[in-house]
């Protein structure tokens, strides 16, 4: 076992709940699972401020509905977990969230 595919892990460690840290971070750091960072989109490339994939909070506030496309994601084919940049607010960088 070896730890690989950790590019999406720093955000998880910094901002994730204790549940996420336990269920995602631990198996990634142990080399049992792979996590990736999904930012790049066909229409925006790596220009994060112009991403179009959107996340809309459900009416009951229990989850997000994510709609859009990601492309050229390193380790995306093998990842067990994805840290994903989504649009959750107005155009520009201030409307971006990480799920």
Secondary-structure blueprint:
Elements: H1 9-15, H2 18-29, E1 35-38, E2 54-57, E3 64-67, E4 81-87, E5 96-98
Parallel strand pairs: 1-4
Antiparallel strand pairs: 2-3, 4-5
Summarize the structure.
This protein is an alpha+beta fold and 99 residues long.
Structure characterization notes:
With 99 residues, the chain is α+β, with helices and mostly antiparallel strands. Helices cover 19% and strands 22% of the residues. The chain contains 2 helices and 5 strands, in the order ααβββββ. It has helices at residues 9-15, 18-29, and strands at 35-38, 54-57, 64-67, 81-87, 96-98. It has a 3-stranded mixed sheet, covered by helices on one side. Strand 2 (54-57) and strand 3 form a beta hairpin. It is globular and about 40 Å long.
Envelope shape: globular
| Biggest sheet architecture | 3 strands, mixed
Spans of at least 5 consecutive residues whose pLDDT stays below 50 are none
Number of strands: 5
Rg calculated over all Cα atoms: 14 Å
The spatial strand order of the largest sheet comes to 1-4-5
Q: What is the helix/strand order?
A: HHEEEEE
Strand content: 15-25%
Fraction of residues in helices?
10-25%
How many helices? The count is 2
What is the CA-CA span between the terminal residues?
A: 27 Å
Structural class call reads alpha+beta
- Average pLDDT confidence is 89
Note the main attributes of this structure.
two-stranded antiparallel ribbon, 3-stranded mixed β-sheet, 5 strands, globular, single chain, alpha+beta, 99 residues
